[in-house]
Design a protein that fits this description.
Number of helices: 9
Shape: globular
Largest sheet: 6 strands, mixed
Bound molecules: 3-hydroxy-5-(hydroxymethyl)-2-methylisonicotinaldehyde
Strand content: 15-25%
Number of strands: 9
Radius of gyration: 17 Å
Helix content: 25-40%
Structural class: alpha/beta
Distance between the termini: 31 Å
Length: about 270
């Protein structure tokens, strides 16, 4: 058996639901070997309503991690919270140098419960330097509105317009996560490969314990690609994995409820899409 090697370039979520913690747990659940290049540390302050405090990692330290991880002949990687334009540039440089094809770009711009775009200049850098290197990008509704520069998206037609604009930036595929913000009675994700639009629908789960769902979805796609799945199969399988994780989301404390990353393998509910 050959173990497939996966890398995440992302921030640390101390509370364990999203960020590199979600990625590593998800990589492990898919039987891949997970590696990390840490870009920043997010610590939530329980005395300030769980405010997210971000501690950046020096870009020389980020480059040293990339040099190490990329030397191992990676099968797939993802990006999450990147923290600075310099880090986006470093990520792009290493992807180019090693000609890595299985690159999943999760364009993390906000944390759940926070409404300010984190570091707006990195959004431009991701749009201009990273999307063209991605096999797929996985924005939520808000992020898709920012990347496409269409602003607030409300309907499935809005999602289609945004998907086309994001595709035109050079990514080979796009999946926009409709989530709860979408005016629709189902949980709808929209997949686009430049040819046709596919709607992936599941029942809306009435839970607020879904912290980390976005990172988990992108990490599951990454692991599925590393394991040799074709792009659409990787997305569909990741949606099932993430739906199970949300269905078994749980309360960590009074502030946050993370998804259960290991739910799909432990409670194989019959998830239909
Ligand atoms: O869910 C977005 C996210 C991504 N990465 C890190 C985070 C968060 C939100 O808390 O902390 C490191």
């Amino acid at each position: 058996m050959s173990l497939k090697k996966t890398l995440t370039i992302a921030g640390s979520d101390t509370s364990g639901g999203s960020g590199i913690q979600a990625d590593l747990k998800t990589f492990q659940e898919h039987g891949t070997y997970g590696m990390t290049a840490l870009t920043c540390i997010v610590a939530m302050d329980p005395e300030a309503g769980w405010r997210h405090n971000i501690f950046p990692i020096d870009s020389a330290a980020v480059e040293a991690q990339l040099k190490c991880a990329f030397s191992t002949n990676l099968d797939a990687m993802k990006t999450g919270m990147l923290g600075s334009v310099e880090i986006v540039e470093l990520g792009a440089k290493y992807i180019d140098k090693y000609q890595l094809k299985n690159v999943v770009v999760d364009p993390v711009m906000i944390c759940k419960g926070e409404d300010e775009v984190l570091l707006p200049e990195t959004v431009d850098a991701v749009r201009e330097l990273l999307l063209s290197k991605a096999i797929i990008t996985t924005p939520n509704l808000f992020e898709a509105g920012q990347l496409s520069q269409l602003g607030t998206l409300r309907t499935i037609d809005d999602m289609k317009n945004a998907a086309q604009k994001i595709y035109d930036l050079g990514t080979k595929n796009v999946v926009i996560k409709g989530g709860r913000a979408l005016h629709h009675d189902k949980a709808v994700d929209l997949f686009y490969d430049g040819d046709s639009f596919v709607l992936l629908e599941t029942e809306k789960l009435e839970t607020s314990y879904n912290h980390g769902a976005g990172c988990t979805f992108a990490a599951a796609i990454t692991a599925n690609l590393a394991n040799g799945e074709a792009i659409f199969d990787a997305v569909l399988h990741a949606k099932k994995f993430t739906t199970a994780a949300i269905a078994h989301g749980w309360k960590l404390n009074e502030f946050v409820g993370p998804v259960m990353h290991g739910a799909y393998n432990r409670f194989p509910d019959n998830i239909s899409i």
